[in-house]
Amino acid sequence: MAVKVVMGQRLLKANAAVAQENRARFAAAGTLVVNLISSPGAGKTTLLEQTLVRLGGRFRIGVIEGDIYTTRDAERIAGKGTAVVQVNTAGICHLDASMVARACEELGAAYDILFIENVGNLVCPAEFDLGEDVKVALLSVAEGGDKPAKYPLVFRSAGAVVITKADLLPFTDFDLAGVTGEIRALNPEVKVFILSARTGEGVEEWCRWVEEMFLRKRAAGSGTGSE
Amino acid sequence: MHEVGLICSLMDQVTESAAQNGITRILSVKLVVGKLTLAQPDFLHFAFANLSPGTIFEGARLEIEERPLVLRCTACGTETRPEYLDYFCPACGERMEIISGDELFIEYYEGDNGEDGSGG
């Protein structure tokens, strides 16, 4: 006999459930989790390397590297003496919450800050909650300023936008004020950083923000007796 | 996009619900997809057709309702149905909010519970 079952259930419910488990685990450990999203080549790994140089001495930092293939990024990060796990998605264009859960099992010990470098892609990663505290969208000067308008979802869901490769600004027609305005139109509360990981310009300010986010999370969680 | 992953997710969720309801075969599934999600109906149909053989979805129909993007001005209330996300009100220049277009959910499914329905 044919029966009709009304669900009204969001797709990706399974991912949302695992993301919640991740979030609870990170809250218990007092770990700040930052999900870095950009197109390929925007400079996620290079920014991460420079961030580790500045914060690595003071905080226990873990890194999850998401790539379709190769362990090249993990090798770059491991060179900085940081705990890193590479996730190869073998064709899948984003990380999902269960991949992060498995990577965390491998990473083991608790960290102060966990950076997740998502697969280079401005479309799909925006839709998959990993259990992170904040999504950070990177946009390089070399890519052109039309990306926020073309890929609005990721820029809307980001807590911060980092404009990278600012040392290239004099050589391009990148309209910094126009792009920043467009980002703010999409997402009025978003924090915008303009930096060059190559020259180091602006990297301190970014690191300070990460540090503040971490301290805020610890302060919020200090009543739970997780320490 | 990740249409194959979305269909895998759909099949997992419906399979779980079907098991709870004693349903052994799915006849149809209705999915609601907002324009803003960028999930392409053609690819969703393709993924569904290719993933269903050998499962309880074999021979089932996937019905997709596309919802247009609808925006409303946060200041003057003007509503628009643009092709793309447009953040500023054409009437007064204030910010627009999304009323519809970001949906992505399974509305219902129909299945066969193996009973003959004659009450016996």
TrEMBL record, chain A:
Keyword Lyase (UniProt): no
Ranges for domain CobW/HypB/UreG nucleotide-binding: 33-192
Pfam name, any one: cobW
UniProt organism field: Thermodesulfitimonas autotrophica
PANTHER family: HYDROGENASE MATURATION FACTOR HYPB, HYDROGENASE PROTEIN ASSEMBLY PROTEIN, NICKEL CHAPERONE
Any GO molecular function: GTPase activity
Signal sequence coordinates: none
Keywords, comma-separated and alphabetical: GTP-binding, Hydrolase, Metal-binding, Nickel, Nucleotide-binding, Zinc
Record-linked InterPro entries: CobW/HypB/UreG_nucleotide-bd (IPR003495), Hyd_mat_HypB (IPR004392), P-loop_NTPase (IPR027417)
Family according to the record: Belongs to the SIMIBI class G3E GTPase family. HypB/HupM subfamily.
GO biological process, one term: protein maturation
Protein name from the UniProt record: Hydrogenase nickel incorporation protein HypB
Coiled-coil intervals, chain numbering: none
From TrEMBL, chain B:
Pfam families the record matches: HypA
One Gene Ontology term of the molecular function aspect: nickel cation binding
Alphabetic keyword roster: Metal-binding, Nickel, Zinc
Sequence positions that bind Zn(2+): C73, C76, C89, C92
Binding site residues for Ni(2+): H2
Domain of life: Bacteria
GO biological process: protein maturation
Tagged with keyword Protein biosynthesis: no
UniProt keyword Transmembrane, yes or no: no
HAMAP family: HypA_HybF (MF_00213)
Family: Belongs to the HypA/HybF family.
Role of this protein: Involved in the maturation of [NiFe] hydrogenases. Required for nickel insertion into the metal center of the hydrogenase.
Protein name as it appears in the record: Hydrogenase maturation factor HypA
Lineage of the species this protein comes from: Bacteria, Bacillati, Bacillota, Clostridia, Thermoanaerobacterales
